Amino acid sequence: MRFGISLPPFGEYSDVRYLAEAARRAEAAGWDGFFIWDHVVFDPSFHPVPDTWAALTAIALSTTRIRIGPLVTPIARRRPWILARQTVTVDHASNGRLTLGVGLGDPMFDFGLFGEQTDPRVRAQLLDEGLAVLTGLWSGESFSFEGKHHSVGEVRFRPVPVQSPRIPIWAGGQWPNPRPLRRAAGLDGYFPIKLDGDLTPEHWRDIVARLGPLRTADDPFDLVHPGQIGEDQWDGADDIIGPLADLGVTWWMENVSPWRFGHPWEVQWSPDFTRAMDEIIDRGPPRYRA
Length: 290
What we know:
alpha/beta, TIM Barrel, two-stranded antiparallel sheet, 11 strands
């Protein structure tokens, strides 16, 4: 089991220097991953937000060991050929430590405010076509594509990613929706999101059972659990993490956000939020005896 941080880069964290320093501290504290949310705008309070790929470049250059990436990038609102350049640049800057989380994104704040597509079926099509273009361009070979939404003339992108055969891709999506699970089966990991409560070992048992028939390769595959450990359990989280590890979950992704403390989503960012989140980062990962 590896332990990562999932963090909204809002408020003070929208300053890429502060964010990169937080990532450096997370690495020093023993975390295995530092992942940031990818939004242009987030909720009606309009928190300060940085550009995701500029922020990840700063994080890459400030760390040496931990895996980094967006969790998740809504490919439907990005031009996949631009995303190909951005991802490969960060992969090189990090010396091969980028993991790309992908998903549909928020229909209103990622899309609707800017007149972009909000229909989930169309965004899913854009996501799947975007993945095909992205991985084709990563190959470094001659590539072209003709889809319903994207067209790419014959082109060859260099350099290729540091990682081989490609930058790992995790598919995020609401559980128990079947389409994100099917998408994830053909990629490198699954990051389920449950809006009405926490994911339990029973949910993961079901996920593993459903993934089995969908997976056609024996390549490494990550199962990523979003959760949060209470302060009173931090030094002894065996009962929480152990059952998930036994089921094959490979990552515990700690929710390091103000909302874990019960603050309303619509409230403007407060420096108190940042201090509380910094304390979790500096605490290091929860104690678990494998």
